């Protein structure tokens, strides 16, 4: 894993945006894997600003999101469909029909999981996946204990995840207890991954990722087995890590 150390959230977002914009310009048909949560909001803001200023075009780009809550329709402001529309898609020139998220209200959710993986495979896979990390090491909504062989699946959210995400809801009781998420194996198929990590709340997780072993008890640890991962982390997130410049490996 390559590590880019940055000062703060702003610099992390700018660095990530610079990379994404460059890749979109080089490959206008790039297939992007996208994440939700607080972490990528700054990145999306910068993609929008650049689109408005420099006219970087997403007309031929296709996108695939990691996850969606079970039971929330796309018009629910807490759904990830809504988040993506309002945080990014409505503000750039990507075609609505080229944006994909798992459908958390599908009648047959198991079929939906299979459909999602097959669709991504059929379209040639994800070129660049943007990832965040949960405080417990989850990626997508794959909580500790998830099989590294997992494909897109329905998962029960950990209590800590429900608590962390409750800030977006009126009350913790409104947070769905289940989600549909790309599995670990689905995520690992991406040709390239950028992991964004910011803030002291993620410092323990980042330390565990960099210093810890590869174990299903810490889902993000599988990223060490991927050939092309770049972590962009800020000083607060790195506060518990002793790293050599540019390298996130222990050796
Ligand atoms: N399912 C999402 C993840 O994709 C995200 O990376 C993570 C961290 O969220 P945040 O960026 O808000 O800290 O948890 C959420 O529950």
TrEMBL record:
Q: In which pathway does it act?
A: Amino-sugar metabolism; N-acetylneuraminate degradation; D-fructose 6-phosphate from N-acetylneuraminate: step 5/5
Q: What Gene Ontology terms describe what this protein does at the molecular function level?
A: glucosamine-6-phosphate deaminase activity
Ranges for the Glucosamine/galactosamine-6-phosphate isomerase domain?
11-230
Keyword match Hydrolase: yes
Which keywords describe this protein according to UniProt? Answer: Carbohydrate metabolism, Hydrolase
Q: Does the keyword Hydrolase apply?
A: yes
Which reactions are catalysed by this chain?
A: alpha-D-glucosamine 6-phosphate + H2O = beta-D-fructose 6-phosphate + NH4(+)
Q: Which SUPFAM superfamilies has this protein been placed in?
A: NagB/RpiA/CoA transferase-like (SSF100950)
Per the UniProt entry, the Enzyme Commission number(s) are 3.5.99.6
> What Pfam families would the database entry show?
Glucosamine_iso
- Positions of the catalytic residues: 67 (proton acceptor), 136 (for ring-opening step), 138 (proton acceptor), 143 (for ring-opening step)
Tell me where the signal peptide lies: none
Q: Which InterPro entries match?
A: Glc/Gal-6P_isomerase, Glucosamine6P_isomerase, Glucosamine6P_isomerase_CS, NagB/RpiA_transferase-like
Q: Which family does it belong to?
A: Belongs to the glucosamine/galactosamine-6-phosphate isomerase family. NagB subfamily.
Q: What does this protein do?
A: Catalyzes the reversible isomerization-deamination of glucosamine 6-phosphate (GlcN6P) to form fructose 6-phosphate (Fru6P) and ammonium ion.
What protein name does the entry list?
A: Glucosamine-6-phosphate deaminase
Q: Which organism is it from?
A: Peribacillus huizhouensis
